[in-house]
Write a structure and sequence with these properties.
By secondary structure, this protein is an alpha/beta fold. It folds into 2 domains: 200 residues, Aspartate Aminotransferase, domain 1, CATH 3.90.1150.10; 249 residues, 3-Layer(aba) Sandwich (Aspartate Aminotransferase, domain 2). Helix content is 42%, strand content 14%. The strands form 3 sheets. The protein has a 7-stranded mixed sheet with strand order 4-10-9-8-7-5-6, with helices on both faces. The protein has a 4-stranded mixed sheet with strand order 1-2-3-13. Helix 13 runs parallel beside helix 16. The radius of gyration is 23 Å and the shape is globular. The C terminus is likely disordered. The structure holds 4'-deoxy-4'-aminopyridoxal-5'-phosphate (PMP). 4'-deoxy-4'-aminopyridoxal-5'-phosphate (PMP) binds next to helix 7.
């Protein structure tokens, strides 16, 4: 039978969870069903998802920070159509193709405009974790040193190198042994960092400039000092901007906030407009060349799909839209409004401990409330499961208000949002209004939200994993 994709989608939409239960990650399906995330989204545009009845859902998750330019952007769609119509040879491999050259040029030119002309050599790959692997390999090869230092509570991906430097034990369980020579210091602890660097065997210090799991970032000059220490001790400074790059934090690159000069930069997520997996490592040419230092080593680090035309076309589209629609600037403006509104919500609810916002990357952290009844609810829920509480926010945000958000990290009372950078006042009002309403409902104990916690735990005990975990990945 000839493949009719459109017909297939129309006739089978709705079978999603059955298919995943049968053929993919059925544990994830069970969690999605338990927490009420088992929606069938039929269409997407900009900052909105639509279900089969046409109801809109405000997407404040954007595919874990992928859709900076919004979903199904016409410029990206046109780029895909064009590249298909051109019938270009794709991945000849033993040539130097035009599209990858053009994307690398666009990335380097953009970095130069943002104050980093020294980042002038690009390695294209397919994902964030793969960009991190590349960065670690380039650093080790350039310095011939064996160790990598990263930060506690960091997230760099889940392949072995990236996982080994990821400072979150949740992701480690069951996967040991890890890559040797990976150690961590606490964000802000310069003494600990210097102790490690002084040993003279550290190839690189790698940081997320705004930590993805918690949206934590230093308010002081920790990064500048850390970079200076790296220079002093011959260690390369890697900024993992897989999530923070390309406008997310209100600048094209987060390193601009602190006027840093990373030796190596990683990018992915928003790089290809949400259509085709893509990632990039960008380094100083002299670092890059230490890996490709002899003719017989010209492909010693490589990946089959890394320079594919479709990803590169999407990459050019994403960079163009970010610039034309001034999305980094919009992220800064809307981020300021988001922060203002969140601080207002915080004033009304003492259960909010802290609001952290950098551009359009935001976390709302909760703590035990003072009022007697919600305090009892808080204690009960934390007694049942230390990861559960933020799910009690995120689920009604979706169920009652049709706003998609995420639990940020395991065992942390944090809700995180990373909306598309195209949002405006309307979207921010809807999000903060929903958040305010959900938190107000927490004041009712006993009440429906706290009951939901109980139900989640019952469902968990019947064999599903901890309810809060999967919504917190990435
Ligand atoms: N580094 C950072 C800073 C990230 O946020 C992520 C993804 N959340 C990764 C690396 C891994 O990216 P990927 O999921 O594409 O492998």
């Amino acid at each position: 039978m000839p493949l009719d994709l459109k017909d297939m989608v129309v006739s089978r939409l709705g079978e999603n969870y059955e298919l995943h239960d049968r053929y993919l990650n059925r544990t994830l399906v069970k969690v999605q069903r338990t927490i009420g995330f088992d929606k069938v989204y039929a269409r997407a545009e900009g900052a909105y998802l639509y279900d089969m009845d046409g109801k809109d859902y405000l997407d404040f998750l954007s595919g874990f920070g992928v859709f900076n330019i919004g979903r199904n952007h016409p410029v990206a769609q046109q780029a895909i159509r064009d590249i298909l119509e051109l019938n270009l040879p794709n991945m000849v491999q033993l040539d130097s193709a035009l599209m990858s050259g053009l994307l690398a040029e666009a990335i380097v030119k953009r970095l130069a405009r943002q104050g980093a002309p020294h980042l002038d050599a690009v390695f294209l790959c397919n994902s964030g974790t793969e960009a991190v692997e590349g960065a670690l390999k380039f650093a080790k090869c350039a310095t011939r040193r064996p160790r990598i230092i990263s930060l506690e509570n960091s997230y760099h991906g889940l392949t072995y190198g990236a996982l080994s430097i990821t400072g979150n034990p949740y992701f480690h369980e069951g996967f040991a042994p890890f890559v040797p020579g990976c150690d961590r210091v606490v964000l802000g602890d310069l003494d600990a960092l210097e102790r490690e660097l002084k040993r003279g065997d550290v190839a690189a210090f790698i940081v997320e400039l705004v930590q993805g799991k918690s949206v934590k970032f230093p308010k002081n000059d920790f990064f500048q000092q850390a970079q200076a220490l790296c220079r002093k001790h011959g260690t390369l400074f890697i900024c993992d901007e897989v999530q923070t790059g390309l406008g997310r934090t209100g600048k094209w690159f987060a390193f601009e906030h602190w006027k840093l000069e990373p030796d190596i930069l990683t990018l992915s997520k928003a790089l290809s407009a949400g259509y085709v997996p893509a990632g990039a490592v960008v380094a100083r040419r002299e670092i890059y060349q230490k890996t490709f230092n002899r003719l017989d080593r010209c492909i010693v680090h490589s990946t089959t799909f890394g320079r594919n035309n479709l990803a590169c076309a999407c990459g050019l589209a994403a960079l163009t839209v970010l610039e034309d629609e001034k999305l980094p600037e919009n992220a800064a403006t809307q981020g300021a409004e988001l922060e203002r509104q969140l601080l207002e919500v915080q004033k009304r609810h003492d259960i909010i401990k802290e609001v952290r916002v950098k551009g359009l990357m935001a976390a709302i952290e909760f703590h035990e409330p003072r009022a007697m009844m919600p305090k009892m609810g808080w204690k009960l829920v934390h007694g049942l499961d230390p990861s559960l509480f933020p799910q009690l926010i995120v689920t009604p945000m979706l169920q009652r208000h049709r706003v998609l958000t995420q639990v940020a990290a395991n065992r942390a009372d944090i809700v995180k949002v990373v909306p598309p950078l195209i949002i405006g006042q309307k979207e921010i009002d809807r999000f903060t209004g929903a958040l305010d309403a959900v938190i107000s409902d927490l004041g009712k104990f006993p009440g429906p939200i706290w009951d939901m916690g109980h139900n989640f735990v019952k469902a968990m005990k019947s064999g599903a994993p901890k309810a809060a975990e999967p919504a917190g990945v990435s």
